[in-house]
Amino acid sequence: MRQAPFRLVVMGVSGCGKSTLGHVLAARLGFPFVEGDELHSRANVEKMAAGQALTDADRSEWLQSLAGILGQALAQDSGVIVACSALKKMYRERLRQGAHDALFVHLQGASSVLTERIKQRPSHYMPASLLQSQLAILESPQSDELALTLDVLSTPEHQCQQVISYLNMLSSSPNSSPISSPMAHD
Hints:
The protein is built from 7 helices and 5 strands; from the N terminus they run E-H-E-H-H-E-H-E-H-H-E-H. It is an alpha/beta fold. It has one domain: 3-Layer(aba) Sandwich (Rossmann fold). Helix 3 (56-75) packs parallel to helix 4. The two termini are 25 Å apart.
């Protein structure tokens, strides 16, 4: 029977709430949280800050670093929560090279909502002007991928509970124990 994946990638375009949900999940599940934005090269950060979209080549080394983190967690049979845009299926496949069992939690919402959220965080290097370029290349997870799609308008606590419920559903092995949460309620 399939064990629940403990390598989680919170994905989506800028402003969707990846970091917020990642922190909530990490606190609730007791896993370390890795902020993917912090692993971008200086050149990538400068490029985005200048309003230039990253190319596949720009993202390559960054994705490899994140896949390494996921792979280390898999090798240690431990959990980790990673925030990463993972906009294209090929990016998610690259990340799965590190951990084949990674669950992608896709936060999705309307462009207008995302734009307003980005405008509310002026200290972040990602300008609102790049949102449309991210939406243009976004390939939402398909049925052949291990993924859960959530609405950005839900509270982070509700999103967290949805993830925990999904993980519990995947943990159908008689030897696996349900994932608990101090705030879990039905």
